[in-house]
Amino acid sequence: MTTTLTETTSTASPADYLASDSPASRSASGLIVGTTVDEFSADHLLQLLKGDVFAVRVAGAATGVALQGLRDRFVGRDDHGPLATDPQFRRIGQAFSEVGVDGQENYFDEAAHHRGRLRELAAPYQYPADTLRILLDEAWPTGATLLTSESRKFFAGVVRYQQAGVDLEPHTDNVRRNLPENDLDIRRQLSVNVYLDVPDSGGELEIWDVYPTEDEYQELSGERVWGVNRDAVGDPVLTIRPEVGEAIFIDPRRVHAVAPSHDRPRVTIGLFIGVRNQDQALAVWS
Questions:
Q1: N or C: which end of the chain has fewer CB within 10 A?
Q2: What pTM value is reported for the model?
Q3: Residue 84: predicted pLDDT
């Protein structure tokens, strides 16, 4: 059932969610919302935007024969490439945040190729990034589409392989770091991952109740190329062990991390969700 922007029980308006730079701090209890693909609605996204919840877990993003088929096609692959900014991280497809100014043209030139290749790898099953985009399109009153910059379509749906022993350290994601400098009307940013494999030990999603400003984040990062030291932020408020086949939505302005995988790679397919004015469609990209 689709929930319109006016059907949320909150007293704040969607415009308030988009304008807020400092969501209220909350306790750890009751901060995970569980739902299903059939019941997912715009209100779940609004709860994240307002800061009422830390995560929305959507069961059944991939199920049954399709889930097993996707796992057969993506889990255990060794043809993934290194992240440009840190080769210990592996992926299929390319995220815009890793290309830098000099690599933007190549990113857009290759975006359609990456989308097509991943759909071919997933066939005959639907690629999970497309499943997510359809889910968002049907839930959000004004729909969802691929992000476009100067008539160029972004890629959405990078596959990430977090190898055993690799620590995805505390970090935030911010549209000012993750998108071109030209104005794309993105007011807020959410993120979502579908989980195709989770190690038996490790690989938990960790979330802190901290929303550093960009200046504060850069100060925490210091001379590091990426992320911040765990000692700088202490223990997470919330730790989630993902289930294979589910999707988890978060607000990536909140500090978050992934604990090291201890026995095998953690395999996810993820994208960002750009929230614009309330009368505009959501925009997705990687």
A1: N
A2: 0.88
A3: 62
